[in-house]
Amino acid sequence: MSKQKQANLKKRVAAFATPDKKASIQQLINTILPFFLIWFLAYQSLSVSIWLTLALAVVASGFVVRIFIIFHDCTHGSFFKNPKANRIVGTITGIMTLFAFEKWKRSHAIHHATSSNLDKRGTGDVWVMTVDEYAAASFWGRLVYRLYRNPLVMFGLGPFYLFLLSNRFNRKGAKRKERLNTYLINASVVAIYGVLIWAIGWQAFLIIQMPIIFIAGSLGIWLFYVQHQFEDSYFENEDEWDFVKAAVDGSSYYKLPTVMQWITGSIGFHHVHHLSPRVPNYHLEKAHESTPPLKKATTITLVSSLKSIRFRLYDEASKSFVSFKEVKELLRKRQQIGTRFQEN
């Protein structure tokens, strides 16, 4: 794609980057109010059946994912035109989803600016090693990476690490505004959880809230993981890296069933979002449907996305992800070639 076509593509998508105040308010109403209602019903159901409570917690976790999408839009300044409104709603939804608004706003902006850039990995993204880096790593380096990429660790322990540790502490060198926002959100979470535990008891609180944050966290990590970890995803070094290609070829179109698309705030149109982060979630589908070149983005479905679990390392030679099993064969062949070269 020529530079002119890339510029035209960005311009066409930018036309959808205008928040609709009415749509944003409607989304707040149809997302946050049902969440509170389902949480209350989950508490009431404890006197009926704990299985009914857990079932309602699963439903509530879906609404937490949707609340996070609102939070996410606020960090991009795309949910409202008014920056102050984005900051206020973003902080409130950050309390509800256990994310520090200012901290995540910074790291996620870096993710967008460096996504698919092999020379600028490490902030706001999923840890990806190349085959060559893995081959050069120590035993312990490989072990840590293998543990990190293990589904049980990433999607099982990941939510607890994210909510209880990563999101609760400021990064080194954080500015005053960022630090204070984290403190505010932490204090608010402690106060709200404390009142709920006092009101309904810690057992009831844990039975309801723990499944909600665990399931929502796992789903969130999965969405973030799968939309950049597909077989022929785009990755390049700094000198070859291109923003538009990183957006369109390095982010997938996750084609989800209607209900799941609604719950996830249309974040499946991830290629559109990366091309123009200021497009509100409720305009992503329209931007995709109105822009023919975007329909050529890699499309994955619920079934095909499951294959991404085995994608562990990025092979710069083949420009694709490979599994740990495949990398063993790759390294063995390279060693054989190196041996023959030395012999000759």
What does this structure look like?
Helices cover 64% and strands 4% of the residues. It is mostly helical and 344 residues long. Strand 4 (313-315) and strand 5 (320-322) form a beta hairpin. The two termini are 43 Å apart. The model has no long low-confidence stretch (mean pLDDT 91).
Characteristic key phrases:
single chain, 344 residues, mainly alpha, three-stranded mixed β-sheet, two-stranded parallel sheet, 16 helices, 5 strands, 64% helix, globular
Q: Reading side by side through the largest sheet, how are the strands ordered?
A: 1-4-5
Q: Which band does the percent of strand residues land in?
A: under 5%
Largest sheet: 3 strands, mixed
Report, as a whole number of angstroms, the end-to-end distance: 43 Å
Instruction: Please state the average pLDDT score.
Output: 91
Radius of gyration over all CA atoms, rounded: 22 Å
Number of strands: 5
Structural class: mainly alpha
Low-confidence stretches: none
Relative helix content? 55-70%
Q: What's the domain count?
A: 1
Secondary-structure element order, N to C: HHHHHEHHHHHHEHHHEHEEH
Figure out the total of helices.
16
Gross morphology: globular
Q: Which SSEs are present, and which pair or pack?
A:
Elements: H1 3-14, H2 21-44, H3 50-75, H4 83-97, H5 101-114, E1 129-130, H6 131-136, H7 139-148, H8 151-164, H9 176-200, H10 202-226, H11 243-250, E2 253-255, H12 258-263, H13 270-275, H14 284-289, E3 299-301, H15 302-305, E4 313-315, E5 320-322, H16 324-343
Helix pairs in contact: 2-3, 3-4, 3-10, 4-9, 8-10, 9-10
